Amino acid sequence: MVCCLNGPISFIKKHWSLVIIFAAMIHCLFFGGFIFSYNLLYLELRKSFNSTATETGVPGAISISLFSWCSVVVTFFFQKLGHRATVFIGVTLCCLGLLTSSFAQQISILYITYGVFYGLGLSLTYVTIIDLIIRNFDKRNATRATCSALTGVSLGLLAAPWIEWLYEKYSWRNTLRIISGCLALVGYSTGLVMIDMKPTHVKLSIACEKYENDKCSGGPICDSSKDGDNIETYTQTHSNKEVYAVEKKMDTKFEVDLIRNKSCIAKYIAVLKRRDFTISLPGILLAATATMFTYISVGNFLFEAGMDNDHIALVIVWMGIGDLTGRIIAAVFSDGLPISRTFQYALSNVVAAAPSVALPFISSSSGLTAALIIMSVPRAILNVLLPSVAMEISSDETRSEAVALIYMAFGAGTFITPYLTDTLFDNTGSYVMPWFICTTLYLISAVFLLLAVYAKRKHERTSIQKYDRVEKDDCEIAKTELK
Fold first, then answer.
1. pTM for the complete prediction?
2. Do residues 397 and 417 both lie within one domain?
3. Which of 111, 219, 254, 407 has its CA 20 to 30 A from that of 332?
4. Given its phi and psi angles, is residue 199 left (phi above 0), alpha (psi -120 to 50 degrees) or beta?
């Protein structure tokens, strides 16, 4: 019996990255699909609390922005606690947030229960899963892997009619309680597989010591023409026994952990020193502000245009199909295109600006639906390319930190959305100006990303090393703290 199981078990271990992608897709289907269907909850909350458009949009903006903005904090969580434990904590916060939201008597309470609890919980699960995926794939296949996992979000948007039916039949309060139970079942189940069966990262403390040993002995790190020029790549070329022998040289576990924490800060500093990366951050922020308008307030826009809730739910389904199409396009073609992911991100902004500027002039329901479907395609590409863009304009050893900072900028842009768009609607009674502002933001974002592409090419021409490396001085600073 045991012999018969050895084959399937070894096969699963060998292809564990595919197991992670499948579990991530199911996870995103429920958790991501619900948060990005906030347009439907928006209508229910505005009717229940008789709140303004801005007040109603804030809970959704807080939750979506926190799930991105807290990415830097999340990196410390999964580096300290592990990926599985971090996902479990996130699932617990999400379920607690929805459950407590169902008892809220004021819209401001939802800022904490739905906005903070659900947003922070989703950040703990989402960013952790993305990090686990990019750890198992190289840069050539990173976009394909992340897009495949994140198609679950698009599939989740297809459940909009079912969510609307729950709102009508059981009220939004009971619906949140039902969905809370579903998320607990799915979240804890998928979280069980969120472990790295084939680790690719070695503690930086070990890398620093190996760096010093080889530097003193004239080892391969001294030769810039070899892969040893990159600390992480160099340490991975050594056997487990060699790495273990080096790790044994560290006096205590406390010392290892302290150096690792210090080196993590050094990695963030190394990422922010890159000009191409810092130039891209404002572009990511502006694109997030424009993109999230369609996830938060487009339901109210359609309601003001004369559509009923059932029709709006159907439009969201069609937008979900457009979203899924965009993710599939990115998954199939992005890695093979002769242009960089950063340049693809800039082009997607330009494409998204076209339907955005046209929407204020469309009056028919079919025309509005068609324009929103077209917009959903580049919108999805903008969302799924974020990890790949971060990896492209950072080094191999700082990819996790780069992804965290990119999502932090994305979250900051999301938080601005209701104050920039719904506030204008409250003051003017029209969504014409918000659409024009979103168009402008898309185009300015494209300019920033094109500048980042230019800066990256300049960085590659002037850089002596193949990859940026956390400097030896940073390692020495970390160790000095121990003395």
1. 0.72
2. yes
3. 407
4. beta
